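1st attempt posting a full record on here, be nice pls
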Amino acid sequence: MRKHLILLPGWGLGSAPLVPLAETLRALDHTLQVDIEPLPERASGDARDWLQELDERLPPQTWLGGWSLGGMLASELAALRGERCRGLLTLASNPRFVAGTDWPHGMGEASFNAFVEGCRSDSAATLRRFCLLCAQGSVEARGLARQLQTAAPHGAPQVLLAGLQVLGGLDGRRALQGFAGPQLHLFAGADALVPAEVAGDLLALRQNNGIGLIEDVSHAFPLEQPGEVAAAILAFIDRDSDA
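the predicted structure (as tokens):
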């Protein structure tokens, strides 16, 4: 069976941030089919609607992966599919984006709510701010933020708002514990949106999780360091494909 990896992008920025990673993966392994699948364009903030659409749209027996919100959705979809998913990988993805009493490493609830209100009143300005946060921690933060913003699609405000509602409502801890297939979770050491401490939390959640930390890179590290990320992904897929 040919290896097939489907990558889901993050909130608001479209597929462009994952294109260099996908191209690098294809160049390094010609037997691997890599597709970037756009997130649903829904005005509904109910994650169940998004997952149902993705499950209907995506072929079975693939590796599922994603960046940020895409990784959260990939985790839920992997648990939903069970043996129909060959493995899961996430990039800068927090199982629970908003912090809580039993999950301290995330964005504070007040900060997240302010972000949602900002999107409701001025989605374009909120997206610009998000690009800056994604690039914060990079040695080329200004240029990286500009690159993200230039390539971002002009999403409908109601779709952007619904995506934030999905992001704030998901709690993927049960999904990650319930999915029995191989898992790899990569984090960025200088991430301004998903604290690097989440790596330790995930290891405590499920001891046989594959965990990786790339130092001195931002939340947008799949775009910032596609070669290093691709090498880690291929080592993970090849190891489990040969097992």
